[in-house]
Prior knowledge:
The structure holds 2 protein chains of 2 kinds.
Chain A: H1 20-31, E1 50-54, E2 57-66, E3 72-73, E4 76-77, H2 78-92, E5 98-108, H3 113-129, E6 134-142, E7 150-160, E8 174-177, H4 183-192, H5 209-219, E9 223-227, H6 233-245, E10 248-252, H7 260-269, E11 283-286, H8 291-299, E12 308-314, E13 321-324, E14 329-332
Parallel strand pairs in A: 5-6, 10-13
Antiparallel strand pairs in A: 1-2, 2-7, 3-4, 5-7, 8-11, 8-12, 9-11, 10-12, 13-14
Chain B: H1 5-14, H2 17-34, E1 39-43, H3 46-54, E2 65-69, H4 80-91, E3 95-98, H5 112-117, E4 122-124, H6 128-138, E5 142-148, H7 150-162, E6 168-174, H8 178-186, E7 195-198, H9 199-205, H10 211-217, E8 221-224, H11 228-244, E9 249-251, H12 263-272, E10 273-280, E11 284-293, H13 302-305, H14 320-323, H15 327-331, H16 363-370
Parallel strand pairs in B: 1-2, 1-7, 3-4, 3-5, 5-6, 7-8, 8-9
Antiparallel strand pairs in B: 10-11
Helix pairs in contact in B: 2-11, 3-16, 7-12
Amino acid sequence: MRSLLPLGERITLKHGSGGRAMRALIEQLFVDGAESPAGGVGLAEMDDGAAIPVGDRFLVLTTDSHVIHPLFFPGGDIGRLAVAGTVNDLAMMGATEVLALTCSVILEDGFPTDQLEAIQKSIRFTSREARAPIVTGDTKVMGKGELDGLVLNTAGVAFTDRVVPDSGLRPGDRILVTGTLADHGFAVLAARHKLELQGELRSDVAPINTLVRDALAAGGPEVVAMKDPTRGGLASALHEMAEKSGVGVVLEERRIPLTGPVRAAAELLGIDPLHVANEGKAVLGVRPGAAERVLAALRAHPLGRDAAIVGAVIAEHVGRVILDTGFGRRLLTEPEGEPLPRIC
Amino acid sequence: MSLASEDEVRELKFRDPEKGKALAARLEKLTEQIGRAPVAVMHVCGSHEQAIARFGLRHILPKALEVIMGPGCPVCITDVPEVDEGVALAQQGVRIATYGDMLKVPGSAGSLADARAAGARVDVVYSISQAVELARELREEVVFFATGFETTAVATAAEILRGPPSNFSVLSAHKYIPPVMEIVAEMPGTRVEGFLAAGHAATITGWAVFEPFVERHRLPVVVAGFEPLDILAGLVRLLELIHAGTPQVDNMYPRCVTREGNAAAQTQLWRVFRPLGGRWRGIAHVPNGNLRLRDEWAHLDARQRFRIDVGRLWDFAPAALVQRCICGEIMAGLKSPADCPLFGRECQPESPVGACMVSSEGTCKIWHLYGGHPELQGGDEVRP
């Protein structure tokens, strides 16, 4: 582990934004001293979920709480996000056939019923799409001002024969992304700040367990690492994978798929799209011999049409991500908090 | 992956790495011909540094060419007392709207972000018009803390001339670039042999604004845009002028910049603002370097409308760390972040000591983000 950031006297928003500060918080407060299940994956691994050995298989377990403003945004809403988030975390461990989900909702006094109905409809729709039945749940209502509208928590369980960790990269492996990046973060940012940006920014929020299933079927054990680049974007996901694997990564910037509207928004706001959240994408580390095969399988799936091989793993520069811009090279850093737009 | 064809065309035009490499080869040759090592030139624009770092251009520049980052980040050169005015107003209970970059800039007793964490109302806006909208919606006093060079000052001027609501006012910390080039050129120990001027600012001022400077200091000035090829071509032209020993102004951004500039914008700028001498953080007193509202607009000037009590803040002695910060020397081009004992240690984007670590256009932040210019070889045989 790298040198730890001091937490400071109070928890601030940066501790929840997916960058170094958040990892420092989790490492120092929650992981410290935690035990992992024998032969499985637990808190100490800081992976997308836990894996508990059961017979010759693994039971994968994960949970996620969802808060987002606004609750409804172009391309999705908090309900779809809550289901997809948990289904995708299971898939990132290799568990693509979901046994069951739980769903808890905490509401603020005065929350509009029609909005709750719309969210519930979206939860049900997404759960069917992912073939992930919701089997139990819980509802609480809190006083006015005690929370902002609504908080959703989902948990999920699934079996897998093989756990795909974050940490399986070795030099020579290829880095794949399953589609265009930063769509979710920019769509929400534009909706939140009412930015009138040219072109259509739409969140990519979607359950991608069937996409991952197809990739695993094509690549088998040669798919060696997976992560969903949510908060902190591709930059955060790759740093974590590189650090845990003890390798470096070189990305070819011009191969990274981005939509026209995302490019425009990124340039305009001065925000690096590689620091921006995705909710329907995965980063895969694949052995070189299987990369093209996995790419073809991804592209054959409707959610993977824009998949691309974007980089490679190197032995040098351990824990770092190098971006080759075509002109020269630079380091890609991890985002340090909520991205602030630059002024001119 | 399929790119929209429009994107591809744009990439080809200004982001063609092959053309970039050809320009880099010309730079190599020119530095050899000049024969002095290093040849030092300065840009005075955070957006230039941003593009240089963002595209990894330092990686392909000749070792004998030193491109110094000048005082080109408007957030970084906003002086401590100006930040204090914003913080004091916020603490007095007035709602402040400002650009996101200004939030974390430390004043003598904390930043606007600190004030907000302690209960003050500070809103981040993307433009002055959003701040005006906020004033219209809220019907309470809203002060726009206005920072930036002539580029953003013009937007402030236009909004003032449009007639904002009566509960809106402006705390101007706007700065004007041309005078600070004189300061840098006259600094003892300066090694700068030519300037790369900012294309967006020149769009407004016109390139002729640099002629008196060239006349006085016998140093060439080249106006350049912000795409990687713009910057490389601008550097090539600058080195050609240095090599030929012909100090003059050249415009390498003719698709946007004219000799006269945007006359309408200049009229608006000078109708609203007057130049006033003042300190730039870490640099020096810059004659005519600040833009303040003219008396005609006193009713929209937060300094006239409110009694801003900054004295209260100054009871707090500056933190010891701040005294070790070398942002000023970095912005004057005398030192680099690598020379700073705080850089990357006590001073990080999460906990900035100096303003240069705050703004996305600040030298230290850019170095921190993009890794300065380390050796980044390796992995060529496995590139996809």
